[in-house]
């Protein structure tokens, strides 16, 4: 009986020949990521000091201030200051701030590599699965153990195999693919399981699109959302000067899956997740005409270069509707600079969009775009929970960047295909 990608990565990390779903293994961690919101705060800093222990490997720890940057008030500024000073005092050279959401920064800077075990104090750490890594979010207490020992235990997850074959129609993006998948599996349907995304549709996707898919694995309850690394992964890394130090894995032909789902890309149309659950998914035509007040394109899910490029194609030469706010937050400074250089930000701005700093702020209502009572927002982010982006008396719809752009033009939810 063969092994899945996840089983192979965990077996290697645990120093055993074979791993099977349900086993408990102690795995060595290749990278540990902390952000400012759940990172080296009192829970970790004081306890680490009280244990009188050193960090097991400072080169394998990455700290990124992203949720509270730029700070909106003194409390947020204090947290970022603490995070910065703690990292310096503990010799963490891999510290970043004011450059964008942690997950994009991890990928851009080569901290997320194929075949590695990565943990982070943010639930969307699963995004690195798009690089072929076993990556998952952990709590502060678990992270404390990792900082001290460099190890963590896992129950080897069962794997759901999701196969997408064919070519996506015009106006349909990776966000539609993952929302459709989440709608079918359910918000808890993959709890503590790995979701392995394969098929010709996935193989033909650029890395920006793959990252969007793996990012949202946790919205199914999944431990990881993994995509086999391939020549596109290699090319993406090589462009960043990384040509070795990682290993490709693929599932064996006789690997055991707890479930397999098959989809045809040509049959997919633009979809939207309706309030207040990510799995409350329907075709966008079923809610077309719903009036919106804010449209948001950004975050570690929907703010990469390709996302802004495709949105700009919809908005080019057009204006957003009167009374609608269109906010754009590039996923990183690198993305911001590339989009500025190529004129994408100008097109978005000329359409009436407001360009924000690369940050997590608006995604979870911390700053830079919180919504008021009674307002409706359509967003390319990853969650639409009650009160996620501001008032608990507001509503959030999740959609692809092109669908968000189309809604901004009409002032109501709309099918983006008419603009392409």
Give a structural overview.
With 420 residues, the chain is an alpha/beta fold. The protein has 2 domains: 5-263, Aconitase, domain 3 (2-Layer Sandwich), CATH 3.30.499.10; 270-419, Aconitase, domain 3 (2-Layer Sandwich). It is 30% helix and 19% strand. Strands 4-3-2-5-6 form a 5-stranded parallel beta sheet, sandwiched between helices. Strands 16-15-14-17-18 form a 5-stranded parallel beta sheet. Strands 10-9-8-11 form a 4-stranded parallel beta sheet. Helix 2 (42-51) runs parallel beside helix 5 (140-149), helix 11 (305-315) crosses helix 13 and helix 11 (305-315) runs parallel beside helix 14 (401-410). The longest helix has 16 residues, at 74-89. It catalyses: (2R,3S)-3-isopropylmalate = (2S)-2-isopropylmalate. Residues 45-411 form the Aconitase/3-isopropylmalate dehydratase large subunit alpha/beta/alpha domain. Pathway: Amino-acid biosynthesis; L-leucine biosynthesis; L-leucine from 3-methyl-2-oxobutanoate: step 2/4. It is an enzyme of class 4 (lyase). Belongs to the aconitase/IPM isomerase family. LeuC type 2 subfamily.
Give a nutshell description of this structure.
The chain has 420 residues and is of the alpha/beta class.
Topology:
Blueprint: H1 5-14, E1 24-28, E2 31-35, H2 42-51, E3 61-65, H3 74-89, E4 95-97, H4 102-108, E5 117-120, E6 134-137, H5 140-149, E7 151-155, E8 158-165, H6 174-185, E9 193-198, H7 200-203, H8 207-215, E10 224-226, H9 231-238, E11 259-264, E12 271-273, E13 281-283, E14 294-298, H10 299-302, H11 305-315, E15 325-329, H12 333-341, H13 344-350, E16 354-355, E17 376-379, E18 395-398, H14 401-410
Parallel strand pairs: 2-3, 2-5, 3-4, 5-6, 8-9, 8-11, 9-10, 14-15, 14-17, 15-16, 17-18
Antiparallel strand pairs: 1-7, 12-13
Helix pairs in contact: 2-5, 6-8, 11-13, 11-14
Keywords: 4Fe-4S, Amino-acid biosynthesis, Branched-chain amino acid biosynthesis, Iron, Iron-sulfur, Leucine biosynthesis, Lyase, Metal-binding
Subunit structure: Heterodimer of LeuC and LeuD.
Domain Aconitase/3-isopropylmalate dehydratase large subunit alpha/beta/alpha: 45-411
